[in-house]
Design a protein that fits this description.
- Strands 1-3-2-8-5-7-6-4 form an eight-stranded antiparallel β-barrel.
- By secondary structure, the chain is an alpha+beta fold.
Length: about 200
């Protein structure tokens, strides 16, 4: 399976109005809607993060081309002020995304990597993920197939206070960060996002 993470920047106060239309679009379009979040803390507010899964490269490519050629992406063009579409593959030791109820707060972390940094990063993650996910599940850990070398990982938490506590415990016990992880990061960003009413992941 391949994954598309769409970052949709929208006009202020437009999200409640556009969500029903976005929901209808993702139901009818190729691919499977896995999650839709509204950003709460991060670089830019008033954004939606939309995660979809595709059976293969052909299905994803056809949908990507359709989005790029239309003047009404996701049928919400009137609300859009920016759109970024990224393609990912899941780490081969991390299960595919399974919708369900996992938490009220999700953290999206993207690490742009140093050249040659992907393989050692993945090796470190493979060793560390079992102990870390025993503390609380991981939604996704995936690497970009386009753009700069990078990984994006998505973590759910019961609430923001739980996020702080879980992350502190993982550091204090030496479970996290993975070996060869920080050493290969060139640039890191983090965004806190809240599941929208249409999100299968919540």
């Amino acid at each position: 399976m391949l994954y598309e993470l769409a970052t949709l920047s929208v006009h202020l106060w437009s999200i409640p109005k556009l969500l029903p239309t976005l929901d209808r679009y993702t139901v009818a379009a190729p691919g499977r809607l896995l999650g839709c979040w509204e950003t709460e803390i991060g670089e830019i507010l008033t954004r939606l993060l939309v995660l979809r899964g595709f059976a293969d490269a052909e299905e994803l490519s056809a949908e990507r081309e359709r989005l790029l050629l239309t003047d009404d992406p996701f049928d919400i063009g009137e609300h859009l002020v920016g759109m970024r579409l990224e393609t990912y593959r899941m780490f081969d030791f991390v299960p595919d995304v399974e919708p369900g109820e996992y938490g009220s707060v999700y953290e999206f972390r993207t690490y742009e990597l140093k050249i040659g940094g992907l393989a050692p990063t993945m090796a470190g993650w493979k060793a560390a993920v079992p102990a870390r996910t025993a503390m609380y599940p991981l939604t996704a850990a995936m690497y970009g197939l386009d753009g700069v070398p990078r990984i994006t990982h998505i973590w759910p938490f019961p609430d923001f206070n739980a996020r702080i506590a879980i992350r502190k415990e993982s550091y204090d016990t030496g479970i996290w960060p993975p070996r060869n992880g920080p050493e290969n990061i060139a640039h890191a960003t983090s965004t806190i996002a809240i599941p929208t009413p249409i999100s299968p992941l919540r």
